Amino acid sequence: MAEPQTAIAPEPIPSPDHPVEIRHAEPDHATCVLVDWMLGNACNHACSYCPTALHDGSIPWQKTRDILDFYDLLDSHYQRALGRRVWLQFTGGEPTMHPQIARLLAEASARGFGTSLISNGGRTLRFWEEIAPLLDSAVLTYHDEEADHAHFLDVAALLAEMIPLHVNVTVHPDRFEPIMARAAEIDRAIPGASLSLKPLRVDFGPTLYRYTAEQMARLAAGSRGAGARGPTTPRGVMLTLAGDGSYQVMKANAFVLQGRNRWQGYLCEAGLESLRVHGNGRIARATCGAGGPVGRLGAPVELPLSPVICDRPACTCVADILITKRRVDALTQGCGLA
Fold first, then answer.
1. Regarding predicted confidence, which is higher, 167 or 5?
2. In this model, does residue 334 exceed pLDDT 60?
3. Which residue from 10, 19, 150, 273 puts its CA 20 to 30 A from 245's CA?
4. Residue 196 falls within a domain, yes or no?
5. What is the CATH number of the domain that holds 145?
6. Is the pTM higher than 0.90?
7. DSSP string covering 53-119
8. How many CB atoms within 10 Å of residue 9?
């Protein structure tokens, strides 16, 4: 998703590897509930590095009635009771293949929700022209194994003219140079979008593919932000705060590339700043599943009112990394949390 530039001191002091707090650089992002919502697992791509369960169509598309009922609960719990804004981010599979995607976006907007999706951009230009007015932002992911490069550029150019756009380029170490060349073309052609070079993880788990040190350095250096977007996007960059108040500004990918995505034992705002709706309808606080399920589409749901202690050895999902986290011992000592 788009990563805004934020008015921050020009030379922040680096924090230690175990900061007191991971905090949003844009304060409005802390009051936004990002619902990462997998509508089903059908996809028009079948990339070699993507787990079969994320593209084989084995999970039917969720029922529109169940989705809309959950919309009403989200509105009541987060927006009306807690004063937070709900932002839906649809994923898959390929979410644009859901037969009711336009209606789902329109119904979300009618309730005051922000709307976005993560897509491979494979649908026609006509489709994107029709759906773009229903979106507040979008993330396009470029998969060089499957992408039609020229079409991807056309779709990205169209969206970047209308809404905040972020482009992810997945970079396999075995095809590193040609993919980096494609990424450079996208970067030049779509200057209005932000762009991230994404390292791949084996089966989308915590273990990275085998990249050389040079490749890792180039991935870390190759991403760029867009112009200031502020509260028009649900997430951006994070601050890592040390006990003395010093901090470092970090993008989500940087936590993974530097191995600083381990917060086991921290108090995490998952469930207050985030939810994850799985393709089978199970609802959790976050993609990682910390804190256990809170319910299921079409069945009773008990939405959270408090944060959870992280019990995961690593935070591997971008959506989960971009959640406020605080070290429990620092809370008792009152360190650096003003």
1. 167
2. no
3. 273
4. yes
5. 3.20.20.70
6. no
7. GGTB--SPPPPHHHHHHHHHHHIIIIIIIS--EEEEEEESS-GGGSTTHHHHHHHHHHTT-EEEEEE
8. 8
Instruction: Check residues 84 and 1 and name the one with the higher pLDDT.
Output: 84
C-alpha–C-alpha distance, residues 117 and 8, integer Å: 28
Split into its structural domains, the chain has a count of: 1
The label of the residue with tokens 């994107």 reads 128
Mean pLDDT for 23-40 is 95
Q: Residue 78: helix, strand or coil by DSSP?
A: helix
Cβ count near 127 (within 10 Å): 14
Reduce the DSSP state of residue 162 to 3 states and report it: helix
Instruction: Tell me if 280 sits within 8 A of 54, measured CB to CB.
Output: no
Query: What's the Cα-to-Cα distance from 330 to each of 263, 335, 336, rounded to whole Å?
Result: 13, 5, 8
Q: Do the domain assignments include residue 256?
A: no
Taking the C-alpha atoms of residue 226 and residue 219, their distance in angstroms, rounded to an integer, is 17
* 138, containing H or E segment: strand 138-142
Name which of 273, 227, 320 is nearest 3 in CA terms.
227
pLDDT of residue 232: 67
- Answer whether residue 191 shows pLDDT above 50: yes
Give the structural domain span for 59: 31-237+261-314
pLDDT at 226 over 60: no
Residue 254 pLDDT class (50, 70, 90 cuts):
confident
